[in-house]
Amino acid sequence: MTGEAGAPPGTYRRGARFLLRRRAVLVRLAAWSVLEAGQTFLLGYALARALDDGFLAGRQGTGLLWLGAAALGVLAGALGTARVYAAVAQLVEPLRDVLVRKVVDRGVRDGDGGAVSRLTQQVEIARDTFAGIVMVARTFVVTAAGALVGLFSLAPALLLVVAPPLVLGVALFLATLRPLARRQEAFLAADEAVSARLGAVCGGLRDITAAGAEEPMAADADQVIERGRRTSSALAHWSVLRVLALGVGGQLPLVLLLLTAPWTLHRGVSPGALIGAIAYVTQSLLPALRGLVHGLGVGGSRLVVVLRRLTYEAAEQPLPARALVAGSESAPALEISSLTFAYGTGADPVVDGLDLTVPRGGHLAVVGPSGIGKSTLAGLAAGLLTPDAGQVRVHGLPADAQQAVRQRVLIPQEAYVFSGALRANLGYLRPDPVPDDELCAAAAAIGLTPLLDRLGGLDAPVDPAALSAGERQLIALTRAYLSPAPLALLDEATCHLDPAAEARAERAFAERPGGTLVVVAHRLSSALRAPCTLVMDGPRTVCGPHEELLHRSPLYRELAGVWTRQGRPPRVAS
Predict the structure, then answer these.
(1) How far apart are CA 179 and CA 186, in angstroms?
(2) Cα separation of 113 and 470, whole Å?
(3) Cα–Cα distance between 494 and 504 in angstroms, integer?
(4) Which residues pair with residue 397 across a beta bridge?
(5) CA–CA distance, 22 with 16 (Å, rounded to integer)
(6) What is the largest CA-CA distance in the chain?
């Protein structure tokens, strides 16, 4: 199909070449279809002769002979139909083979995760739909040919009554095919957009609430739903024209035959010929046109959609995930190569072939839907999980294992705080006592000072059960800030803080001298603060700055769309 109809460019040409390479099959199909055309011809002609030359003339035997000829035509048509199915199979199965090869090649080349669905469902849908379209189109052509020849043989005047509305109805139907296909494509796209938007909203309710974006997100969702309503309405309006085409081409000829019956009978048309013409319309043309309208109208749009999905090659290619975050001149702090990890033998990989480099002093945010593997990646980077394949290298690690652990610190979502003095909690990761000035400076940088004052100073006792989740996170963050580890991994470590407190803590880690920061973000504001963001999206995982990701990552556009479409940033403390 053309781009106008929503299908890949060149599909018409490829379809024509596909059929031309099978000219012999088309010839056999046409030859066997002649028997069906003969059956249609005899339906009305034999009935007319049986009435005029037989029963109405008092010759019962002649009438029965003509009816017998019509019965023989039915048997011949049945034989032709059986042979037609075999010829159609010779057209359909090669199409199935071509589509299977395309799907397999694409799956092997691009690691297409939807290849199984395409092989088991969409290819079969295309095969069955193509077969149905061939059958209904062929049936209409041979039926119309047999009926029109029969009408001319009975009386040319009858052909003049039936042919014009039939041609007009078919022309009207064909004129609606392309607009109807476009509306069908637009309706499907709008329906997919509604599903995708609702999925993004449901998965990001916490982000939306935290950013205070309920109203703009609701307005944005309303726009998407309204587009879906408009496309559905447009599709319904064009579908009415399909019904009109069926009425003009199939029902109007019957009405005209009845209205013009006095005129045609007066000009020599016999009663039998008129009955035969009515039989042609009601028993042949109307059912054939109904099959064409519903089969080609619905099946054609369905085939266009499936072929588009099977043959479309995405114009946007994902960025490589390997990217320096804050400047290629810096030495790497964290280097991940071909990293693969799955929870258990035989399970699908949570992280699959990931390549990523974070330079020393860099700041990387990691975003993605729940369950995509963000926390798993943090655990792998922290050395808590062992990869199934690939490597995680933290550069500059000393040979001593105990010292190596001190080169990276992971702060999980559930912060660990133990009973004891606040000083002991904050300096837990330091081998030597930490001076009070340094403790207070770290508390000020992270935003712990109000809690420190409320508790009664550095030597005040800490009761973890008496603290809120956000207060425990502030203590854990300050402890990590004071650690000697240059690489800090925050795995939703600020999820219980308000946006301003979160921004302050992340800014403190980003500005820590010699420090490298990786943030598993639960708010988009974290991604906007980082110079580079890793969007975990399965095979479409990408890494880059905000503006670049807006162009290259559909998932990131969904996550960031509420602010980019409303023209305002999220509420982030400066």
Answers:
(1) 10
(2) 39
(3) 10
(4) none
(5) 10
(6) 125
Low-confidence ranges of the chain (pLDDT < 70): 1-15, 103-122, 185, 188-189, 192, 196-197, 199-200, 203-213, 298, 301-302, 304-306, 308-330, 346, 396-406, 560-574
Residue 408, helix vs strand vs coil? strand
Report the C-alpha gap between 523 and 88 in whole angstroms.
Answer: 56
Q: What is the pTM of this model?
A: 0.49
Convert the pLDDT of each residue in 467-476 to its tens digit. Answer: 898 899 999 9
| Integer Cα distance of 467 and 542 in angstroms | 38
Amino acid at 7: A
Tokens at residue 97, please?
């083979």
- Torsion region of 398: left, alpha or beta (phi above 0 gives left; psi -120 to 50 gives alpha): beta
Q: How far is 369 from 382, CA to CA, in rounded Å?
A: 21
Q: 454, 397 in Cβ contact below 8 A?
A: no
- Which is nearest to 490 in space by CA: 573, 400, 404, 381? 381
The DSSP secondary-structure symbol of 5 reads G
Q: Please report the pLDDT score of residue 308 as a whole number.
A: 66
Residues 36, 39, 44: CA angle, nearest 5 degrees: 140
Report the SS3 class of residue 409.
Answer: strand
pLDDT for res 302: 67
Residue position matching structure tokens 């003509």: 66
Q: Cα–Cα distance between 453 and 508 in angstroms, integer?
A: 20
Place of tokens 């596909």: 18
pLDDT in tens, 72-85: 888 887 887 788 88
The confidence score (pLDDT) of residue 440 equals: 93
In contact, 382 and 489? CB cutoff 8 Å:
yes
Distances (CA, A) of 293 to 127, 186, 235, 481: 19, 20, 15, 71
Q: How far apart are CA 58 and CA 379, in angstroms?
A: 97
**Nearest CA among 329, 327, 387, 328 for reference residue 354:** 387
Helix, strand, or coil (residue 338): strand
CA distance 519 to 493: 8
Whether residue 382 contacts residue 334, with contact meaning beta carbons closer than 8 Å, is answered with no
Residue 266 CB contacts under 8 Å (≥ 6 apart), including other chains: none
Q: What is the pLDDT at residue 396? A: 59
The two structure tokens encoding residue 501: 């407190």
Buried-exposed string 357-391: b where 16+ CB fall within 10 A, e elsewhere: bbbbbbbbbbbbbeebbbbbbbbbbbeebebbebe
